[in-house]
Amino acid sequence: MGFATPTMRLARAHYELVVAHCLDGLPDEACGLFAGPLAQNDDGGRGDGLSTEPTGEITAVYLTTNADASARTYTVDSRELIKAMRDAEKAGGALVGVFHSHTHTDAYPSSTDVRQATYPEWIYALVSLKHPEPVLRAYRIRDGEIAEVAVEITG
Hints:
alpha+beta; Cytidine Deaminase, domain 2; seven-stranded mixed β-sheet
């Protein structure tokens, strides 16, 4: 079984920023948002015309506050979400995903993560801090189904 589309392409500087933010958030989960370009695609036979999907390229990373201040859950601060959304749109892109850390478990969506995945077009990245070396993996979560996407660190 292969990876879902698109491949998430993340510059090394963005990757290092994400990992550092997750480590800085300890003992709580840390979170943030990804921005990038959208591509228009056929609706896949749903009958609603064109849909927009992330191309996978991440052009900006927004480090946000975990409003839950919890080691088990996260919620992106709503003011920071709106600010990031406006900034991404001003730059000609859109918010295309979210990341958060798992402080003691693997980089795989929990049942809570799946329930909270309300944007089916987004890429959901997880950074596991379970082992000395952080692990970043990314997923598409649609209708409760989890599909891993490849992550490419560039530069």
